[in-house]
Amino acid sequence: MSKVLRASALCALVLVVTCVMLSGCTSTPATPTLKISSPSNGATLKTGDITVKADVANFNVVDKQGQANVTGEGHVHFYMDVSPIPSAAGQPAIPTNTSATWAHVSGTSYTFKNVPPGTHAFAVQLVNNDHTPFVPAVSDTVTVTVTT
């Protein structure tokens, strides 16, 4: 192979590798999403235990509650009849009402026990390891009717 062809091949290889490396450096992480998959909004349910399930994308749900924040990871807060959802940046996403029904979970589902009859709002929120809300806030809410 001639020196010119080898030099051209080497230049082409360097150009391809550089482009691949630069394309990885300029990508923006995908925005986290959160959606309550169950129960559905407007559902009518029987009194008793109600499990709320959430679908999470582009966010790693981990069991590091109370630890230092790591970009792209945290846990889920589940709320029942908490309004507004605590979402002040830099402040723990914990209801100020000490009798509020809520839970912090390193998973994507939570069961609320003995839910009484009535209309109830269930909400979920992505939070950082230190319980502060993800910024911008990522949450979802459904309203259901619970009957006897």
How does this structure look, described?
The structure is a single chain. This protein has 148 residues and is an alpha+beta fold. The chain has one domain (33-147): Immunoglobulins (Immunoglobulin-like, Sandwich), CATH 2.60.40.10. It has one helix spanning 3-25; strands at 33-38, 44-46, 48-57, 60-61, 73-80, 101-105, 109-115, 118-127, 139-147. Strands 2, 4, 5, 6, 8 and 9 form a six-stranded mixed beta sheet that branches. The protein has a three-stranded antiparallel beta sheet with strand order 1-3-7, with no helix packed on it. The termini are far apart.
In summary, what is this structure?
The protein is α+β, with helices and mostly antiparallel strands.
List the helices and strands and how they pair.
Blueprint: H1 3-25, E1 33-38, E2 44-46, E3 48-57, E4 60-61, E5 73-80, E6 101-105, E7 109-115, E8 118-127, E9 139-147
Parallel strand pairs: 2-9, 4-5
Antiparallel strand pairs: 1-3, 3-7, 5-6, 5-8, 8-9
Q: What structural class do helix, strand and pairing data support?
A: alpha+beta
CATH topology: Immunoglobulin-like
Number of domains: 1
Question: How big is the Rg?
Answer: 23 Å
Strand content bin: 35-45%
Q: What is the H level of CATH, i.e. the homologous superfamily? A: Immunoglobulins
Q: Span between N and C termini?
A: 84 Å
Q: What's the story with the biggest beta sheet?
A: 6 strands, mixed
- Following the backbone from N to C, one meets helices and strands in this order, namely HEEEEEEEEE
CATH class descriptor: Mainly Beta
Tally of helical runs:
1
